[in-house]
Amino acid sequence: MPFETIHLFLNPAAGRGRAGRRQARILQLLEQGGVKVKLSLSRAPGELEAQILHCVNAGAKRLIVAGGDGSVHEAVNGIMRSSSDAALAVIPTGTGNDFAKACDIPLDWEHATRLLADRLSANDAPRHIDLGLMNDRYFANGAGVGFDAKVTRIASSMDLPIGDLVYILAVFRALIDGIATPHLTISSDSISWEGPVTLASINNGPWVGSMFHIAPMADNTDGRLEVLIASPVTRRRILTLLPKIMSGSHLQEPEISHGAVTHLTIHADELIASQLDGEVQALGTTFKIKILPGALRLL
User: CATH code for 138-292?
Assistant: First the structure.
């Protein structure tokens, strides 16, 4: 397909504006690599998803998204809402690039763009990556309810030029407000839990919030989701756990339970927050989650 025009979707606000500032260079690198692209910009939440849904319904087979995990989230939902088998390429330019890390995409965005141009020009076959589904929304990297959803909401409200550190600052702000421990009933093919929790994290990839190696064993090609449940902990205990979570050495701590599942249901006794790929979702009480093996074709 040497003369195919490939749609490039870019969220200028991704990475707190970094994606927009890199737009011209991304276009230049793709052109130098022999890739002809048509650029579409998204300006509001949900717009990128709608653009991609329209594009794949019109017959596009290969798409590029330049952005972070939020952009990948919208792209995946746009593709999966269609009946298309379109393949997705990712240029990591977000604040958090957890999906890119899980897929071994270089975080050096210029290097990643050059490598992508080479693959597209050579018409390389896509890889197959697992996706998750929570209720009616797809996720690429992970889902969570409880404390991590609260941290996500706080981080997304911050407009500070501090990169990954925004997630650490969000944790500290969340601790000031106190730690809610909702009563959850969690049932799956291999895990059963009933009682208060600090968080329940469901992972397709190893990283969340860019800095936290929350599920070192997660592999988004193995047909499983890695579930991590943290029982109630104090503010002081969270502070001592943070370095362990960042290094991935927390799994043997007494407050942590974990296991691999293909599906699970979480029911809360009251409305609670949730997040998918770092995107805050509407409050809910029931979350039905499952893995979709090999559902995404990744360029």
Answer: 2.60.200.40
Strand-pairing partners, residue 236, are none
Exposure string (b/e) for 36-72, b if CB count within 10 Å is 16 or more? ebeebbbeeeeebbebbbebbeeebebbbbbbbbbbb
100 and 90 Cβ atoms separated by less than 8 Å:
yes
**The length of the chain, given as a count of residues:** 299
Which secondary structure element, helix H or strand E, spans residue 47, and what is its range?
helix 47-57
The helix/strand/coil state of 37 is: strand
Architecture of domain 5-125: 3-Layer(aba) Sandwich (3.40)
**What gap in Å lies between CA 224 and CA 262, rounded to an integer?**
5
Where along the chain do its domains lie?
5-125, 138-292
At 125-180, the pLDDT tens digits run 999 999 999 999 999 999 999 888 888 878 777 766 555 677 778 777 878 877 88
Contact 130, 204 (CB under 8 A): yes
Give 280's strand partners: 275
> Does the model's pTM come out above 0.90?
yes
Q: Give the single-character DSSP code of 141.
A: S
Q: What angle do CA 21, 53, 43 make, to 5 degrees?
A: 30
Distance between CA atoms of residues 53 and 241, nearest Å: 41
Beta-strand relationship, 263-272 and 183-188? antiparallel
